Amino acid sequence: MSTVPFDATGASLHGAASTRSHGVARLPAQARLPLPRVLLCDLDGTLIDSMPTLADIATEVIEERYGTPRILARELYLATCGLPFVKQLEEMFPEDERNAAASADFEARKPARCGAIRMAPETRRALEQMRQMGVRIAVSSNNGTDNVDAFARASGFAFDLVLGYGGGLAKGRTHLDATSRQFGAARQEMLFIGDSLHDGEIAEREGIPFVGLATTFSPDRFSLRFPSVPVIRRFSALPSLF
């Protein structure tokens, strides 16, 4: 066990400035995380910077379909992000007969406005570093399967497994079960990285190690909900945790 002291946020006091400069917001108690056999990456807000665009689309749809003020509509979307949009709507507007049409509208607007968003070069380099360490790389997203497959084809990176929402699959247990079948890996041999509190709740529920990426939610929000989870500010910092 490391004896390096930590400050109130969980950041190491020994070399804290250096740690923060590499995009690590909070480290766990041990100096390094165990290397996983499989890394599962959320897509929107994690591998690609698509959340601002998705929030814009969702805000438009919620305002138009439900008459919700734009500021509130955006807050509701971000508060429930990580779920498939149709399930977000059920959280916001339970059993509302408009939900199915609103979800279809949202999905129809996504390809034209999100389809060209690509991984940043530093994100790709981090994935390549993880692969060089012997880690298999998977996508686990609640974006629709067709959209996730299109992203993977255009990414120029050979993901080992690509999982989206649809056909009985969703982020969480069914994705993890599919990953186990594909690689013969147990839950504790995987690592999930995501940008939403919902992602952390999936990991907590399913017993899989998790790293929070503070792009959609702040490090403090992750700290309040998951006090012992490591948090990074940018994906490129991930390899430094191992």
Radius of gyration from the CA trace?
A: 18 Å
Q: What's the total helix number?
A: 10
Q: Mean pLDDT, nearest integer?
A: 89
Proportion of beta-strand residues: 5-15%
Describe the strand arrangement of the main beta sheet, using strand numbers.
1-7-6-5-2-3-4
Fill in the CATH topology of the largest domain.
Rossmann fold
Shape verdict: globular
Structure description:
This protein has 242 residues and is an alpha/beta fold. It has two domains: 16-49 and 118-241, 3-Layer(aba) Sandwich (Rossmann fold); 51-114. Helices cover 44% and strands 13% of the residues. It contains ten helices and seven strands. It has a seven-stranded mixed β-sheet. The protein starts with 15 loop residues before the first helix and ends in a 10-residue tail after the last strand.
Q: What labels describe this entry?
A:
single chain, alpha/beta, 44% helix, 7 strands, 2 domains, 10 helices, disordered N terminus, 242 residues
